[in-house]
Amino acid sequence: MLRNLLPVLALVPTAAQAETIYVRAGRLIDPESARVLTAQVLHVENGRVAAVTPDGPLPQGAKVVDWSAYTVLPGLIDCHVHLADVEQSNNVAEPLLHSAMEIAYIGARNARKTLMAGFTTVHDVGSFRAYADVELRNAIERGDVVGPRVSAVGAYVTIPGGGGEVTGFAPDVTVPADMRAGVVTNAEDTTRKVNALFQNGADSIKLIATGAVLAQGTEPGQIELTPEMIKAAVDVARQRGSWVTAHAHGAAGIKQAMGAGVRAIEHASLIDDEGIALAKAKGVWLDMDVYNGDFIAEVGKRDGWPADMLRKNDETTEAQRQGFRKAVKAGVRLSYGTDAGVFPHGLNARQFKYMVRYGMTPMQAIQSATTVSAELLGKSRDVGALSPGHYADMIAVSGDPLADITALETVAHVMKGGELVR
């Protein structure tokens, strides 16, 4: 008899699962409608928003989270982070100095910092240790680690010696195999490696289409992946119901990647007018890390980062920001991506003021880090908004970020899936 009852009991929600939480919001920023509502209550059931109503009497004994003194908005999204890796330093061989086991602990620490900063969802676009981001995502989903919802790519897809490789060390040093899981030499090899990434848990694919600012021996304007290699990756991703983003700095590389069918471009530092028009026409997202250049210039010079990295940063920073300004005016989809990991995790919100400085309104910047980024990730039904059905991922800040966007740099409270984590 007991055996027969077990499947039935499993379907009965526990008291905690069935519990309704009421979150009082003094001001509620709704990025879906670009409106601000005052004195609202969010009804949270089973970790999702069930209703949003004007504030008023609540049921006796109700569990209430009182954020009536704060501005409340959806949990933020960063579409370009590197959680499961060491942060950038002046030692180009730094990734070789840390074991896979150590990287796991580093990733856990970075994930917690990111969540506490109000970023409840991220796109982790690669770590040098293959699948470190996948395993971190899984650990967070199991509840073993505190962190944001993670969409992972598994490994960088890059040519030998390209922008996604560890470079700059002695020529007789052997790089561990798990640091070269995404190294490809032709279209056929790309198809095989991209399939392997998906088979081992990647959610989407990150291509290194051009050289990189922070990889020695490569140049940002230099095309690295061929159109055939990019298309091979895109074809595999589409077959698996997924998508591809491409790291691309140079104007020609950006247009080549968009022509081959990528969904988004990371950095887009040297994009030209033709590239902006193509992004608009194709509905491609640009994920432009417009804060990053100032951090590299300041800290890189202070800490003695390699001269060629600082030179490449100087050559791309202002060009990227002017491209961003033009893209805003053109109405291109601009997601929120910071390249956190180059700068310390948890400082992700520093980019907001740069986005406003270079052409966005504060509401547009907030939408970039909520609804626009959720759409890029294909997760609009779950994250990026607080209308009924979405996860109860939300943050509370003092002040009014629509009057002063830097209010988002200091988050007072964070809720993820109905659980108060800060």
- Fraction of residues in H or I helices: 25-40%
N/C terminus separation: 44 Å
What's the helix count? Answer: 12
Task: Give the domain tally.
Answer: 2
The name CATH uses for the topology of the largest domain is TIM Barrel
For the biggest sheet, the summary is: 7 strands, mixed
Order of helices and strands: HHEEEEEHEHEEHEHEHEHEHHHHEEE
CATH class of the largest domain: Alpha Beta
Which band does the percent of strand residues land in?
15-25%
Low-confidence stretches: 1-17
Class inferred from helices and paired strands: alpha/beta
Number of strands: 15
Q: Label the CATH architecture of the largest domain.
A: Alpha-Beta Barrel
How would you sum up the global shape? globular
Task: Describe the overall structure.
It is a single chain. With 422 residues, this protein is of the alpha/beta class. It has two domains: 14-75 and 385-420, Urease, subunit C, domain 1 (Roll); 76-376, Alpha-Beta Barrel (TIM Barrel). Helices cover 34% and strands 20% of the residues. It is built from twelve helices and 15 strands.
Topology of helices and strands:
Layout (H helix, E strand, L loop, with lengths): L1 H9 L4 H4 L1 E11 L4 E11 L2 E7 L8 E12 L1 E6 L18 H17 L2 E6 L7 H11 L6 E4 L3 E2 L29 H13 L5 E4 L18 H13 L4 E5 L2 H9 L4 E4 L5 H10 L2 E3 L4 H12 L3 H24 L20 H7 L4 H15 L17 E4 L15 E4 L2 E2 L2
Parallel strand pairs: 1-4, 5-6, 6-7, 8-9, 9-10, 10-11, 11-12
Antiparallel strand pairs: 1-2, 2-3, 4-13, 13-14, 14-15
Helix pairs in contact: 3-4, 5-6, 7-8, 8-10, 9-10, 11-12
